[in-house]
């Protein structure tokens, strides 16, 4: 069965939905998402969206803060392009009806780590959920957009996939698994947009939802696209530590509003961040995460404490209602006691290489959001620059799509699974999934060594062999596809980390503790497709 559209958008986070909404007036758009519309990382975003909106702030200051956080690796053109278009992106959301928090009738702006000014617009502590709810409502009311929930990307369809090496480098759409009907559907499109998010689930501990399995990055690599800077995985410093709290993030804004990181009471409750950096709790995320990791290993701790109890209960109810409520459910009263926190994998700074219009090097294929490497984030993403990147580059990609008319794809071959059978031992998938996430956490985490990276590379090779055999022999399932993608992304992360002989931003190596004088991106080129 073949579905035909002008544009196929793969992913339903802020990047994908923004792209679809902007295109709907001129194109027939399909949005596919592997679970429900609201099951992506954007819906989980707590902190906010950074833009220069206050007196005393400036575009140059926002650019400089981004470059500093990016540890010299952020691309200046991409940074300035994003910062200059950020206020317009927030204005667009306000026009759509997103209920941003206000104070005395003005937009309330908070400050987060790495920012020199208050410039983060937010909706209390659930910005992503509010934004996504507004966009989903608009998506459902827009007749030119067709939504396909529970549809997962299997692979991109390229001309070279059909014709071999003689084919041009062009994307014609994608094979997509309908997980409800358990069948693979062919989606044909003039333009395809990857907006599948990051790959946090490659690690044992992450703030990301279960959907963050690097699907777009892996599929683009298999199709022959370059990826860059995959070694830079941002570990959020403060994920709630509790046996019954799965992947619950404690937003950067808690530290921005005065939260203090302390050792447990039996160690005197010492405030340790000033020992590591003069910016203390407002240092960039990589600095704070490494400091917490250092203190936990030094003292043999399971967690550290984040204390915001000096703020009034009324203040906490107004600014952090969801965190207050979730902690209360677990017996933690943040108005009186600190929050136990640990670092966790949070954001994929690298990804599919694009230009400032969201174009990949393959005709007809665009990528937007966390699945990309635009050059904005460099070696470390500045807090609250992610959601605005989604919107700015979605708008840019829309302009490029409108300005680049392509012929309709030819008749595409249907998916052929006539020579495979149903898997009889799904335990292989669950075991490999668990093994991958554990050794990535142990060997490719916040602090790295060559020996650990080489051990991870060896295990990845073994897993890839098993998964390839499984993929070739059995019907595809969502679990198998996600595992296949995660192992591919893990391989890209380790390859990139082994190539970087320095410590920069989020990549910290005990073998190469110094930063080289020249900052260079790590660009991986796939084998010829």
Overview of this structure, please?
With 529 residues, the protein is an alpha/beta fold. Helices cover 36% and strands 18% of the residues. Strands 1, 2, 8, 9, 10, 11 and 18 form a 7-stranded mixed β-sheet that branches. The longest helix is centred in the last third of the chain and has 24 residues, at 450-473.
Summarize the entry for a quick read.
The chain is α/β, with parallel strands linked by helices and 529 residues long. Helices cover 36% and strands 18% of the residues. The chain has helices at residues 14-23, 59-69, 76-96, 127-140, 159-163, 215-223, 252-256, 273-276, 285-299, 313-319, 321-329, 386-402, 427-443, 450-473, 478-499; strands at residues 2-10, 29-33, 49-50, 102-103, 106-107, 109-110, 120-121, 145-149, 151-158, 171-178, 183-194, 227-228, 233-240, 260-262, 304-307, 339-348, 351-353, 365-367, 372-373, 523-524.
Largest sheet: number of strands, sense, barrel closure: 7 strands, mixed
Instruction: Report the uncertain regions.
Output: none
Q: Helical stretch count? A: 15
Apparent shape: globular
Overall domain count: 3
Terminal Cα span: 26 Å
Mean pLDDT: 95
